[in-house]
Q: What sequence folds into this?
RNA sequence: GCGCCCGUAGCUCAGCGGAUUAGAGUAUUGGCCUCCGAAGCCAAGGGUCGUGGGUUCGAAUCCCGCCGGGCGCGCCA
């Protein structure tokens, strides 16, 4: 079992620091991988960081530190530039990662948690009033990947979908379907003021009538329409490869009295007041810029009350960490929900819950923005995208950018020139390795005994090092809720593999060298597969 | 007007407070298949990191102003 070289170096530096500058023994130690090969494999700037506070010359201090270090996995450390300490790994210690990947297999990159926490990621949470649009697609891809990242960090993660099935928009849905069922079309007299105009309304109306539905029974229509759309969304999510553990219905919060309970608790805590016939919550006491109405003068609650009630259940269900994935257009709710939770005085932490807010998705095709979908009318649906470019491409694309960046989804890039699609580049690397193994025909299990010291050329060592980075990359991506870094890593890894593959032959005559190269390839394949699975993208053996 | 986010190569985007050339992809140009998959590789050109200050030994990165863009500022959800 090889120790991870990076932590070994870090430990050695820490020990040296304890000797040379005990007062900073706990200072953060940053080890980065230099861009330029000439600067070694790892580089640290601790000496520069601490020199000022120590009132010492950075280079002298760096020299003092390295005089304390003796590690058998690296050559002698060097002081460079203004005071960087550069470490160059001995060739043998670079390939350790290969063995580790092969040993851990599908678990390579996973961390064990001494005390796993219950966590929850809430995402999509689309109202059952229409098909899922591209924004939901981005949320689905992001949320699912974030959930996977947290699972890989050893936590118990629940994927949850919240259905706003109790609000006014459901009423509008029912009215729209009823109007359609009775032959009233958008624009006609009698069409609901805030009705839904998409063609899917017509579909629902037709099916409702076909089932001998009573065209005057609004309750029956509402039930039918919600069930219809929920089923349709489920089909889309399934096609997208996203599965939820819990579907939470807003209506159940009312049914169980939780909404009224929240308002009562606020009142009991003295956080509310009456004004203009409405009941207000003093959210300004918790960072909001104005107080908010919680019970309207007509006696109904504003939408954010059930939202708070919902989050109380998350806390009470034991989720210590909750991440809500939402569009930035909802960012004003963040402060409100947190304030509402604080005002209950239930001991819920101040920053609860966490949010990942994502920007909007713009779909481009043929050089122009696509805004119209045949099904939905006013927006492009997830189904449209999957139909156009396939599930893997959609998922990879949608997580391959930071959540807060505006996303331009270029259908032409993914469709007409599909070979230039980044996801194929990564999948192709995986398929290539598979192909080599098929050609070879040997038993992969036999590779565990390969002499990895035979791997000496720079491309092999670079690849090995890249493999070694994966677990830390996953950990960082999980901590920062940033699955896009996994996508970038995979591209880099695939790129280095393609270069290697082009420059060197794997299936050489020399048996020992062949075994070593195959071991490296097997590790690359495994790491690619693990990374792709994190993103919900398949790793095909042939394409 | 106020709040949050964004502004890096023609286009789409990475970039951890650090070391002469700021990175990918794509697009453009020129090479590489008697050889394990050319959906690939190699090479070239292309950037005052929106702008003006400040902090620092050092700023694309941190702080402030300005310009440009997005989103939000309901007894809507």
A:
């Amino acid at each position: 079992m090889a120790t991870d070289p990076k932590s070994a170096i870090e430990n050695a530096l820490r020990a040296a620091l304890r000797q040379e500058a005990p007062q900073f023994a706990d200072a953060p130690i940053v080890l980065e991988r230099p861009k330029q090969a000439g600067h070694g494999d790892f580089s640290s700037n601790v000496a520069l960081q601490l020199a000022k506070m120590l009132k010492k010359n950075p280079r002298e201090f760096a020299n003092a530190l390295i005089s304390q270090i003796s590690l058998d996995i690296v050559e002698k450390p060097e002081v460079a530039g203004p005071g960087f300490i550069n470490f160059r790994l001995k060739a043998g210690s670079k390939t350790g990662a290969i063995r580790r990947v092969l040993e851990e297999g599908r678990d390579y990159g996973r961390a064990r948690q001494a005390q796993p926490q219950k966590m929850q990621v809430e995402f999509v949470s689309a109202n059952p009033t229409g098909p899922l649009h591209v924004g939901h697609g981005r949320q689905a891809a992001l949320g699912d990947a974030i959930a996977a990242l947290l699972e890989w960090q050893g936590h118990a993660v629940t994927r949850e979908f919240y259905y706003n099935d109790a609000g006014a928009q459901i009423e509008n849905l029912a009215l729209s379907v009823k109007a359609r069922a009775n032959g009233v079309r958008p624009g006609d007299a009698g069409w609901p003021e805030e009705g839904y105009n998409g063609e899917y309304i017509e579909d629902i109306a037709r099916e409702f009538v076909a089932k001998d539905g009573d065209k005057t029974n609004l309750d029956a229509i509402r039930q039918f329409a919600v069930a219809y759309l929920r089923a349709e969304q489920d089909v889309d999510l399934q096609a997208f490869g996203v599965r939820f553990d819990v579907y939470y219905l807003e209506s159940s919060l009312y049914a169980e009295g939780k909404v009224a309970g929240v308002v009562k608790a606020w009142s009991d805590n003295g956080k509310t007041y009456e004004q203009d016939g409405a009941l207000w919550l003093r959210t300004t006491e918790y960072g909001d810029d104005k107080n908010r109405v919680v019970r309207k003068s007509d006696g109904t609650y504003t939408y954010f009350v059930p939202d708070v009630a919902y989050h109380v259940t998350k806390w009470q269900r034991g989720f210590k960490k909750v991440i809500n994935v939402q569009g930035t257009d909802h960012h004003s709710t963040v402060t409100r929900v947190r304030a509402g939770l604080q005002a209950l005085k239930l001991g819920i932490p101040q920053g609860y819950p966490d949010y990942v807010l994502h920007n909007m998705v713009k779909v481009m095709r043929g050089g122009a923005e696509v805004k119209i979908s045949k099904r939905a009318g006013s927006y492009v649906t997830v189904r449209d995208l999957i139909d156009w470019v396939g599930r893997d491409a959609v998922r990879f694309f949608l997580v391959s950018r930071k959540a807060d960046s505006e996303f331009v989804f270029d259908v032409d890039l993914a469709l007409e020139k599909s070979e230039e699609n980044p996801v194929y580049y990564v999948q192709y690397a995986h398929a290539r390795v598979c192909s080599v193994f098929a050609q070879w025909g040997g038993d992969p299990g036999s590779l565990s005994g390969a002499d990895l010291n035979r791997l000496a050329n720079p491309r092999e060592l670079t690849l090995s090092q890249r493999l070694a980075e994966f677990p830390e990359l996953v950990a960082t991506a999980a901590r920062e809720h940033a699955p896009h870094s996994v996508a970038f890593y995979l591209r880099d890894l695939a790129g280095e593999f393609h270069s290697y593959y082009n420059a060197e032959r794997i299936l050489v005559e020399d048996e020992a060298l062949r075994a070593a190269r195959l071991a490296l390839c097997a590790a690359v394949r495994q790491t690619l597969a693990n990374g792709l699975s994190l993103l919900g993208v398949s790793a095909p053996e042939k394409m």
Remarks:
- The first strand of chain A starts at residue 31 and ends at 32.
- The longest helix of chain A spans residues 511-534.
- The domain at 421-534 of chain A is CATH 1.10.730.10 (Isoleucyl-tRNA Synthetase; Domain 1).
